[in-house]
Amino acid sequence: MTTMTPPPDPGEAAPRRLEPQFADLARQEHAVRLGMWVFLGSEVLLFAGLFALYAAYRTEYSADFTAALHHQNLLIGTANTFVLIISSFTVAWAIHRLRHGDRRACLVFLAITMVLGALFLAFKAIEYGDHFAHGVVPGRGYASAELPARGARVFFNLYFLMTGLHALHMIGGLAVMGWLVTRVARRRATPAYHAELEMGGLYWHLVDSVWIFLWPLFYLTG
Amino acid sequence: MTSTASYLTAGRGLRSWLFTRDHKRIGILFLIGTSGALFVGGVFALLLRLELLTPGETIMGALDYNRLFTQHGIVMVFLFMVPAIPGVFGNFFLPIMLGAEDVAFPRLNLASFYAYAIGSAIVLAALFAGGVDTGWTFYTPYSTSSLTAVATAAFGVFVIGLSSIFTGINFVVTTHTLRARGMGWMDIPLFVWSIYATAIIQVLATPVLGLSLLLVAVDHAWGLGIFDPAQGGDPILFQHLFWFYSHPAVYIMVLPAMGVVSEVVCTFAHNRPFSYTAIALSSLGIAFIGFLSWGHHLFVSGMSVLDAGVFGILSMFVAIFSAIKVFTWTATLRGGRITFTTPMFYFFGFMFLFVFGGMTGVAVATSSLDVHWHDTYFVVAHFHFIMVGGTLTAFLAALHYWFPKMFGRVYSEKWGIIGATMVILGFAFTFTPQFLLGNAGMPRRYFSYPAEFQWLNVLSTAGASILGLGMAITLGYLVYALFRGAPAEDNPWRSRGFEWRTPTPPPLHNFAGQPEMVPGAYDYHVADHHDHDDPAS
Questions:
Q1: How far is the first Cα of chain B from the last one, in angstroms, to the nearest whole number?
Q2: Which of A46, A84, B312, B321 is 20 to 30 A from residue A74's alpha carbon, by CA?
Q3: ipTM of the shown complex
Q4: What tens digit of pLDDT does each residue of B317-335 get?
Q5: Chain A residue numbers touching B224 (CB-CB < 8 A)
Q6: Cα separation, B165 vs B173, whole angstroms
């Protein structure tokens, strides 16, 4: 940690972050923002393919999907939804506090965001463990006594694929949050210029919004 | 460091290349990678043609043949054609054409190269670890049960997809945010328009391919059976996902080619494009409609008559936008002062081959005809006319057109025209017989065929040999020129393009001073002080 060294003046730190290809910081921030939105568009299409598969298979195996949905752990799924929504708020609040020059609060709220993200993954792990104990595993080993139907297997394959891909994104998001903590702590991200924080926040929100769609598809619509 | 030192000498040693953030050097890295892929894929193609010289087994059996055509397809599509023109010439020239110092995200750009390199290494490793025998389309359920290295290859292509997305993000953002002061959207060079349209497809379609291939890899490894009818899956859904990317991918391959052609025709006709707006906007038209035409790959897979009709008509819209371009390029020649150079030879080759490829594309988009031609050599010939006849000729046109600017050396125009003639004629001889073979009913992807098809196959193999020799000659004189060629002027073609207004080879930050953007990139009708360079005026 560099807390021992005197902090550089935030107003001075900002111009040093200008990359040579940009005329000014405003243009650079605009580019970073646009790039992030384009990337998020790309991410949406990555998930869109799986959502399309879900729609097609749900049409084909409507009754099996409903039956499988009744075996889902609604409590954990719903708890996780709240965990993620709160974490979206905390990351937004972290950025808000930094903008007002409150670096300490920013760090605290980033840390809370990471704890919530980890909590989500812990719940997910408990849920997966529960599935595995009942023979509900992805792929060849599927051996559920309660839900032997072919459509149920398709449902759980999709469930593991979609929540698994989402969990990978959560892990990525946690890594991003950890990096942001070091950026803020080392005063690289300043109240004057903290584009990376906003971009990390956008990514976190996207991963949350994907879950907002997974929640009804895998827990609510039984 | 002086601001006028060439980008080639601005840093020395291997490290200065491998960790460069300079878009021009990254372009050169892509040139090395994609040319290597072209060479490997080309050798595979020649081996395939050798096998097909006689009916029955010639040099390899059925399984080796299956692996070889798969590897030829994967290498040519994902390692060469998709990244070639955007990765090499898009990287090198898009920022210069916009008057920018670099792309918006130079580090991401370098990451894009490494994703390409690592993905390619994984794909090539899969070839040595048993190969892949599914065809480059990875169709399920065979691909999820094949004993070959499907999962490795699919994962490699997934990683290359990341490279494509990174490049796409960079080009979209660079075009939006780094245009020189005062350069409006309708002032940007046509090559930039086509790369921009390509980048949109790269960003929005590639993740769907990535997902489909990831599913194949996961399925292959753990047996999810997500596309396996025996386990409740639907293989046609894979085809939908796959072609949702892979049809637009055709335009990832051909739109940059069209951008090259637009630049080449204006420079060597010394004329304004007949309609700048038509060429620029038809690129966006192709990018848009390209997303809505994937279904024509599934006409015989199980599709309602209505869907087939709708997809067929949507596919034909592509031909309308392409025809707008072809007519505009032709009209650009009118009243121009045409110089016959190697790039211009490739331009005429492109026009001829692309029109044939495009017209047969309209034919196969007609579902009733497609039933007859599907999975025959007719389709093989059709897409090679578009992809090789279009993308490869444009790649070679671009390489020759920009070679002096990129390397500061001049290649032999005499050898260039010999090479171009052999490539174009060799190509036509390779694939014209395949139209006839396909129409006569020879199916694709078999190592053997009935004896009555042999004379056409011999013709095709002979053509491939000429094409291969032409490519070898091209490689030879270009490598020679790289080391021994005479120094090039700043603007040897007397082009008005922005990239020719900078020193040759360009300095590290692209322009010696403030980039000069007036007159416009195609203002051949306006006199300016550069005209004293022009001996003909």
A1: 38
A2: A46
A3: 0.92
A4: 999 999 999 999 999 999 8
A5: 138-139, 157, 161
A6: 12
